[in-house]
Amino acid sequence: MLLRDRLQVALKDAMRAKEVDRLSTLRLINAAIKDREIALRGEADAGEVGEPEILQIMGKMVKQRQESARAYEEGGRLELAEKELAEIGVIQEFLPRQMSGDEIEAAIDAAVAETGAASIRDCGKVMAALKGRYTGQMDFGAVGALVKGRLG
């Protein structure tokens, strides 16, 4: 089943079960996807947002909530931090399993070999190969530093 369909089924199930918090998070995901589709309307190949972009949107949503939860905890607003963490849990249900450190290292090695990267200038090629293959499965902010370390 496609990710978009899984989201719609979960949304309907949350409505039926009257799960207010889960429903709110699922609606936020759908709204973010719609916003992206609206932003793309002006482009020539506009249409529906594909799975990789949906995974990217959801990954960004998780990061935003992690930052918010950290800020709330530092500010002593634990109830708001718990709400953010609960939203992260709902979003992560639809994301692929995150890769371990060893798996990330192996993926970087494979991407470096595949692209023939030899210097730091080739970092973009390696990152593009990783993003094409592992969207939603790793934190590309952290991976970028690993790739630079490997090539630098």
Describe the structure.
The structure is a single chain. By secondary structure, the chain is mainly alpha-helical. The protein folds into 2 domains: 3-92, Orthogonal Bundle (Hypothetical Protein Yqey, Chain: A, domain1), CATH 1.10.1510; 101-151, Arc Repressor Mutant, subunit A, CATH 1.10.10. Helix content is 75%, strand content 0%. It is built from 7 helices and no strands. The longest helix has 24 residues, at 51-74. The protein is globular and about 55 Å long. The termini are far apart.
Please write the string of helix (H) and strand (E) elements.
HHHHHHH
CATH 4th-level superfamily of the largest domain:
Uncharacterised protein YqeY/AIM41, N-terminal domain
Q: What is the CATH class name of the largest domain?
A: Mainly Alpha
> Which second-level CATH architecture of the largest domain applies?
Orthogonal Bundle
Determine the CATH topology of the largest domain. Hypothetical Protein Yqey, Chain: A, domain1
Largest sheet, in brief, is: none
Give the mean pLDDT. 89
Number of helices: 7
User: Nearest-angstrom radius of gyration?
Assistant: 18 Å
**What proportion strand?**
under 5%
Number of strands: 0
Based on CA inertia axes, which overall geometry fits?
Answer: globular
Structural class, please? mainly alpha
Which stretches of 5+ consecutive residues score pLDDT under 50? none
- Beginning-to-end CA distance, first to last residue: 41 Å
Helix content: over 70%
Integer count of domains: 2
